[in-house]
User: What shape does this take?
Amino acid sequence: MATDFLNEVAATGAQFLVRLRNNRRLPVIRRLGHGEFLTRLGPLIVRIITADITVTCADGTRYTATYQLATTLLDHHQHPASALIALYHERWEHEVTYLALRHTLLSGRVLRSTTPTGVQQELWALLTVYQALRHAMVTAVESQPGTDPDRAAFTTALETAKDLLIKAEHITDDLTDPIGNIGRAVLADLHPPRRPRTSTRKVKSPLSRYNKADPHRPHHSTPITTLTITTRNPNPPTTRRSKCLTAQPGP
Assistant: This one.
């Protein structure tokens, strides 16, 4: 089922980076070095990255987890494993999208339409507004190289857009001002840099298979001081080669 879904995603032209079960053994089409190799998920060729990630916390807590990632980004020189592993750890950012759509744009209200056609129209309208605001936010952040896009505030962009709409200001594009009022408002109200933190995963539902707390993680949110990423070969042919990369998170 997962293989079929990933093939459907790739068929749209999108690239993906997903996590597979650590015990899943896959045929090797070609080895790429440092434990990476190409394999097939159905008709789709993907690149496999296996890594041990050791987390060291400010309170002295230290634990290691193993990740097996699959991606359609096949060039290991253009897209190094260390960058993709770091990117995968931002996967929870999609929760922010749901929060923005449901709570920020809708203020917690349900859709008003009572027909399938009306619901579809409302959903497309919400997604269009969301994407337009995100586009303005990203354009603004990219004007300041090195700025993390996570620091841009969606609420700031939304409230600025509301004000412009009410006042009927800047209702036409100004090609000489690519950042615009929304972008300037976002840049003036950036969130502080995100602090890397970790804690045990807590699930409210007693029936969930994920409701068992990880005994190795701290019970409360704790700053991370060091992430050590070691890529490795899960099925070495004769010898084992690994590459250790250590990252020091910012404050």
The longest strand covers residues 44-57. The chain has six helices and eight strands. The chain has a mean pLDDT of 84.
